[in-house]
Amino acid sequence: MKRLSRKKKILILFAIVFIALVYIVISSFVLSADIGYLVDDPFYGVPIPTDEALINAFADTEINWEIAYWSAMISEFTYGKYAYPYENRALTTLGFTTTRVYSFFEHEGELKDNLMADAGVREIIAPDGSSYILVAIAFRGSVPLVLDRVTTHENMRRNLDIRSQPWREDMPRVTVHRGFHDQHNDIVRYLLSEINEEFDLSILRSGGHRDPNLRFWITGHSLGGALAEMLTLDLIEHGVEPERVMTYGFATPLVGSRHLYEFAQSIGASDRIFNIIHRQDMVAHIGYGLIFGRSLAADENTIEFGSRGIWNRSNHGLPRTYLPFVISQNDYPLRQQFEASLIVADIVAS
After folding, report:
1. Does 86 fall in a domain?
2. Is residue 51 part of a domain?
3. What's the domain range around 93?
């Protein structure tokens, strides 16, 4: 029998590794949301931030764990696609007037949603009597296969488009994950316009920010975290003062190149982004160029937890992995609810 050449052996090995990698990536994204895992009262014993606490959160240069908790909860409820009425319980509990917005694509003569975001507005009053409109925007991650096969396939098609794309035409070296960039364009074209119309706002309208009275709280898990980072960059690039934006991402994949990060850093966007990742969560370590990019969050704003080891798709779930860690930082009563299904020593490791 003819023996394989060394070159062919290497190619076969590479193909096997690549197929295994793609399988883990797809299954990680698809299994990312544990729908229905939150039971009873998910906000038991958790204080609702005051107006002053929300204002102070925008001034924080380090992660605010109270805001991180509510960001995680807001992000989790974006996965409740078929709940009725369409309500993000975390946002309504915080006193936001809410809406749910979509972008769509056509499949076999029917419209299917590709992206979804929950948005809300709430007036906050500062100690000096001045008031602001706080706009919360939470992006859903990739749709789990059990919810909608067609949308899952569309999400994965874009997630796996790891080619580079210039962030702007005049900055060819400042590149971003092409699939994420396409979805971000949908946000600017469709989702923001719907949010503007619903709440009578002016977010990036007519090519720029038009309302200095707005503050933005942006969040998302997995793909949603990537979209949250890009919207943060877009807002600040178009004139929103960095201190009026705070962004919390969970399991955010690598969004773009080092040059994109440097651009985000130069305009103050990186300092406004906090990214929480589990060390064994593969999705948080892939994305742009598969594994050669980076998050837009400043290095000091990236919080890693969990033990090091082989990447494990089960460490991507928001309520089973990320929420317990965030809760443990606040020592909320909810901690016992989540620790029952966790290896506590791994969660508290940092």
Report:
1. yes
2. yes
3. 6-348
Placement of tokens 């962030």 in the chain: 167
Cα angle value 242/217/346 (rounded, 5°): 105
Report the relative pairing of strands 302-305 and 273-278 from DSSP bridges.
parallel
CA separation for the pair 274, 81 (Å, rounded): 26
What is the number of domains present in the chain? 1
CATH number of domain containing 167: 3.40.50
User: Mean pLDDT across the stretch 94-110?
Assistant: 88
The answer, yes or no, to whether residue 106 has pLDDT greater than 90, is: no
Say if CB 253 and CB 287 are below 8 A apart.
yes
**Rounded-to-integer distance, Cα 121 and Cα 293, Å:** 33
Q: Is the pTM of this model over 0.90?
A: no
Band (279; pLDDT cuts 50, 70, 90): very high
Name the CA dihedral angle for 176, 219, 217, 255, rounded to a multiple of 10 degrees. -10
Do the domain assignments include residue 147? yes
Task: Write b or e for each residue in 256-283: b if 16 or more Cβ atoms lie within 10 A of its Cβ, otherwise e.
Answer: bbebbbebbeeeebbbbbbbbbbbbbbb
Query: Is 1 inside a domain boundary?
Result: no
Kind of pairing between the strands at 110-125 and 97-107: antiparallel
Interval 210-251: pLDDT, tens:
677 899 999 999 999 999 999 999 999 998 999 999 999 999
Closest CA relative to residue 114, chosen from 72, 153, 75, 160: 153
Phi, psi of 294 (to 5 degrees): -160, 160
The pLDDT of residue 26 is 57
Helix (H, G, I), strand (E, B) or coil at 219: strand
